[in-house]
């Protein structure tokens, strides 16, 4: 019987998929096997190293529960989440290449702290009220790539607190997150705090991996935003604060230059939404452009 040698195993696995009926699955699994085997041959992986990898993946799974997603963190910190996001946007851009209109807003990682079902609040509500942090008005307009305002667009927002901790990391009740709907002209506005830089969770296997890689855990200050409107592609993105540390070394590689906004400080007085502020506040203005859905 012919025997498989080091260079033969990958092809032997691929050959066993001859009966696979799903062409895309076949393509993805063949490439996965080819690249995984090539990687193991390239580094000449030892049995101890492979066992360490299996223990690491086991620990990563065991760290997950309904609030903690260590696999997303692994994907994010290895740059894989952002690669998938960037490929998706490039695919969308190719589809739009011969159409008129402006470039859509860039997407970035969703991260592990999205919590569906945040309270739906009136435009202008303050979700930072009562929390430490610098009050900030977030406002702007949502249009399509042709500049047409999108009324009724759901704008789901979430951020960490002044210490960089998300509600999910602290307990069972939602805070510093809400859903808003754009008005007839596509405008949105809400108050929250100015987000600070913060570390991604470092108390699990991914944190151990990052320390061993000699990497820091920090993300620059950002407000998460997810925009959804009928007839348009859903957008998952952030607004990054311009003067934040770590913009050039985000632990999850999520920064896009087009998402960095000036966050000017204002003395007490009347804010652009008419609210009277008796202490200094900040504003962050950002306009979003959504892609009309493929028909
Ligand atoms: C976040 O921004 O919430 C986040 C993103 C990726 C990993 C960890 C946290
Ligand atoms: Fe975040």
Written account of the structure:
- The chain is α+β, with helices and mostly antiparallel strands.
- The protein folds into two domains: 9-67, no CATH class; 74-290, Sandwich (Protocatechuate 3,4-Dioxygenase, subunit A), CATH 2.60.130.10.
- The protein has seven helices and 14 strands.
- The strands form four sheets. Strands 1, 4, 10, 13 and 14 form a five-stranded mixed beta sheet that branches.
- The longest helix has 21 residues, at 23-43.
- The protein starts with 8 loop residues before the first helix and ends in a 5-residue tail after the last strand.
- The mean pLDDT is 95.
- Benzoic acid binds next to α4.
- Fe (iii) ion is lined by residues 111, 113, 160, 219, 222, 224.
Summary tags:
Protocatechuate 3,4-Dioxygenase, subunit A; 28% helix; alpha+beta; 5-stranded mixed beta sheet; binds fe (iii) ion; 2 domains; 295 residues; binds benzoic acid; single chain
């Amino acid at each position: 019987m012919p025997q498989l040698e080091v260079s033969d195993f990958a092809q032997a696995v691929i050959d066993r998929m001859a009966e696979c009926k799903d062409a895309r699955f076949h393509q993805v699994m063949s490439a996965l096997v080819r690249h995984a085997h090539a990687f193991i041959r390239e580094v000449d992986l030892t049995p101890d190293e492979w066992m360490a990898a299996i223990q690491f993946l086991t620990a990563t799974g065991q760290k997950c529960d309904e609030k903690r997603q260590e696999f997303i963190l692994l994907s994010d910190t290895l740059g894989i989440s952002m690669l998938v996001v960037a490929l998706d946007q490039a695919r969308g851009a190719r589809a739009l290449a011969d159409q008129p209109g402006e470039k859509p807003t860039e997407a970035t990682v969703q991260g592990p702290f999205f919590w569906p079902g945040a309270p739906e609040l009136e435009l202008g509500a303050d979700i930072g009220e009562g929390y430490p942090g610098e009050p900030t008005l977030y406002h702007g307009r949502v249009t399509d790539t042709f500049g047409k305002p999108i009324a009724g667009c759901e704008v789901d927002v979430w951020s960490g607190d002044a210490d960089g901790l998300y509600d999910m990391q602290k307990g069972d009740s939602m805070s510093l997150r809400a859903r808003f709907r754009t008005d007839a002209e596509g405008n949105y506005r809400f108050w929250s705090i100015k987000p600070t830089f913060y570390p991604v969770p470092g108390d699990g296997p991914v944190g151990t991996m990052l320390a061993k890689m000699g990497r820091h855990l920090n993300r620059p200050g950002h407000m998460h935003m997810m925009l959804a409107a009928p007839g348009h592609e859903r957008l998952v993105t952030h607004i990054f604060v311009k003067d934040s540390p770590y913009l050039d070394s985000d632990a999850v590689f999520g920064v896009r230059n087009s998402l960095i906004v000036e966050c000017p400080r204002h003395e007490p007085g009347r804010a652009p939404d008419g609210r009277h502020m008796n202490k200094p506040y900040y504003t962050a203005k950002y306009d979003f452009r959504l892609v009309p859905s493929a028909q």
